[in-house]
Amino acid sequence: MRIHQKLLILLPLVITTPMANLCSAQELAGASTGRFQQAADRTFKAFDREEEQTWQRPFFFMQMADTQYGFFSGNKGFEQEVDLVHRAVEHINRLRPRFVIVCGDLTNATPEHPRYREQVAQYHRDFSQVDAEIPLVCVCGNHDVGNRPTAQSIARYKENFGDDYFSFWVGGVCNIVLNSSVLKDLEGAPEVLAAQQTWLQQQLQEANAAKAKHILMFQHHPLFLAEEDEPDQYFNIPLQRRTPLLAQLKQADVRAVFAGHYHRNAYGTAGSMEMITTGPVGRPLGKDPSGFRIVTVLETGIEHRYWGMDDVPEKIELETTSDAR
Ligand SMILES: [Zn+2]
């Protein structure tokens, strides 16, 4: 007898309950010191490293990107982003994933911009509505640390969202989060990229030694959009740093890299590794609507699909059935 898992997706019921968005300063302060400071000491506190290194059962998580508060209006306001994030939060609280990860460009304003603080405050306010039992993992993008990140801009990000690179285990799967903005442009903080590289190598070795069921990576910039050796452009990582990094990830048998930044979906492979670029929660720049990705993690691999905000399934069920074949 063989056990196999099947993903059941029950379609679709759109729920549009209005959500309260008023929140006291005290609640906000609590939220920023708790929920948004989980990434610390290069790990994510909600997940116990020892306990989570063992495979338990299939699970799913939700991957989002580019909430980018302020992008629709050129930083004048953020009503449209608030509306979209509220809808995303309703989906999160209904579907109850193992965790949610937002792959960067949380706000449109960069740290030195006068509108930065209010956009961060709104992000904190809206994502504080995620059920406290569902960990929310935040990843930095180029808008969060600047196109040429510096020690100062990264420090500012960390005050609001915790570490810029870290790793955490969930049910036998090793998840590695990178600061891809220093991979994109290292001029402002070469020492951060060097430290991240040394750390990454250690993480990959440890994941292999601990026999991780899968290694998944998360960052803002796609390493590439479609082809691993495609020419350099705004949306990918320069070949000079992409090529050696891909070799390192293939060597460690990384299953998939998840990114955003492109504001639409794109897919490619490097050997057996998937490069998955996910459309925005916020403003789209192509035909893919605002939405997010649901990723199911099975013992044998992963399955994933992008859902527009209006098409999200009512429920995700991971069914385990026995099969006599
Ligand atoms: Zn970006």
In short, what is this structure?
Residues 1-20 form the signal peptide. With 325 residues, the protein is of the alpha/beta class.
Present the secondary structure layout:
Blueprint: E1 2-10, H1 25-33, E2 39-40, E3 43-44, E4 59-64, H2 79-95, E5 100-103, H3 116-127, E6 136-139, H4 142-145, H5 151-161, E7 166-170, E8 173-177, H6 181-184, H7 190-209, E9 214-218, H8 239-251, E10 256-259, E11 266-270, E12 273-277, E13 291-298, E14 301-308, E15 315-323
Parallel strand pairs: 4-5, 5-6, 8-9, 9-10, 10-12
Antiparallel strand pairs: 1-15, 2-3, 4-13, 7-8, 11-12, 13-14
The chain binds zinc ion.
Zinc ion binds at residues 105, 141-143, 220, 261.
Pfam family, one: Metallophos
Protein name: Calcineurin-like phosphoesterase superfamily domain protein
Signal peptide: 1-20
